[in-house]
Amino acid sequence: MRSGRGLGIPVQSIPLGVEPDMVVVPALSTTTPDSLVPALAGRDVLDAAEQLRAWHASGSAIAASCVGTFVLANAGLLDDGEATTTWWLGPLFRQRYPRILLDESLMIVSSGRTVTAGASMGHLDLALWLIRGKRPAIPS
Length: 140
Hints:
Elements: E1 22-25, H1 33-40, H2 43-57, E2 61-65, H3 68-74, E3 82-83, H4 90-96, E4 101-102, E5 108-111, E6 114-117, H5 122-131
Parallel strand pairs: 1-2, 2-6, 3-4
Antiparallel strand pairs: 5-6
């Protein structure tokens, strides 16, 4: 697999029946409302949402940053909770997901078993947050 910048990313399939403790959702390669809305309706995003819901229901914590927070919201995993996202997409997020309390002034928001990070470098803040051991509650 290749990143948007052409870097190679090793990919390994997750065996059936494996329930991860933590899932980190990557951002979509889009940054504008005009390209984001159709991307969220794509088969790949819809399939990912189905898998994320299944993992979340089985107890996995789920994290995303920047535009990836839209994937979590689209899957219904942030409903009635709190989140953050990239500030310039705040109006679109609020319009699409009124059941989520959005605060795009925060860099990290942990709510239940989800954590979201905002801004264009939010993935770095999220990675540091996870490394520090600040993880959403995972039931035993």
